[in-house]
Amino acid sequence: MQTQSSEESNSLFSEEMITVMISTKNRWQDLEKALLSLRKQDLKHKVIVMDDNSDDGTSENVARLFPEVTLYSHQESRGYIVRRNEAVRLATTPYVLSIDDDCTLEHPGIISEMAEFCRETRCAAVAWPYIDVKVSNCVQSVSPSEGLWQGCTFKGCAFIVDRIIFLRLNGFRESFCHQGEEEDFCIRLLQFGFPVLLGKGHAIHHHESTKRSWERMDFYGSRNLILFAVFNVPVIFLPFQIAASAINCILYGFKLKRPYQKTRGVIYGILDGIRLSQVERKPVSVKSFVRYRKLKSKYHKIG
Predict the structure, then answer these.
(1) Of the candidates 57, 71, 58, 55, which has an alpha carbon nearest to the alpha carbon of residue 20?
(2) pTM of this structure
(3) Which residues are CB-neighbours of 251 under 8 A, at least 6 positions away?
(4) Where are the domains of the chain?
(5) How far is CA 223 from CA 47, 107, 175, 249, in A?
(6) How many Å apart are CA 154 and CA 15, to the nearest integer?
(7) Which end of the chain has fewer CB atoms within 10 angstroms, the N or the C?
(8) What Cα–Cα distance (Å) separates residue 257 from each residue in 61, 139, 249?
(9) Does domain 6-206 correspond to CATH entry 3.40.50.150?
(10) pLDDT, tens digit, for every residue of 200-212?
(11) Which Gene Ontology molecular-function terms are recorded (predicted)?
């Protein structure tokens, strides 16, 4: 795919094409770095910050130091999944980019690259390249070679969605509460014939916050793998998928020497799955599920 200069990109997009949404809670120091990096981008864009009831001065600081940002300050905490859904509904641009509050856009042309990619592909969703800085310098969600490539999901810290399609599919499933919402949304995209494309451009840098709760992540990570199966997997594959997810979660918990929350999450996943299945269960077709499994193991080249 050919790239264009910043001047050419700006002439193509006289109006904002992308809104950047950030859901945050009590991570002002991380958020400030993210917002400063967005200021350096060479393509005009909008920014929405959803403050999920911070008590560390986040809203006050954003309002004072970043007047260009549209800030929504909430008096109750409902979690980043709910806030991301709200942000997409509030956005007015064709595409919405989601980054975590502990991410930075180090290269000034990233949003230009995103706008060009979205214009050329008219994509429904994009997994943009990112680097987990504290883990390695390896770029994730990157195309293996030239051409367009499809994956099975995107990372919550670096994805783009077509706003209309996102809303048409009712966004992220809010019963997930925390973690796992991306893959659940993407398998529903697949069911409706929308591929998740791998983006092409400079990587977003993800600086994993020191304020993350591993107990919370262990619990919801396991719980939501079970819910993913209950909600989406065709009945012919469902028992195997639940059993495999449960066993893998528990074994991984022991490997990490954190088995309690992983096991607890599996138990709650089964219980919540039973409770929510009548309302939430809408399994994809066998064809879509088989396609998802293939994409999970290997990217697919389109065209």
Answers:
(1) 71
(2) 0.91
(3) none
(4) 6-206, 214-281
(5) 32, 37, 11, 9
(6) 26
(7) C
(8) 39, 28, 12
(9) no
(10) 999 999 998 888 7
(11) transferase activity
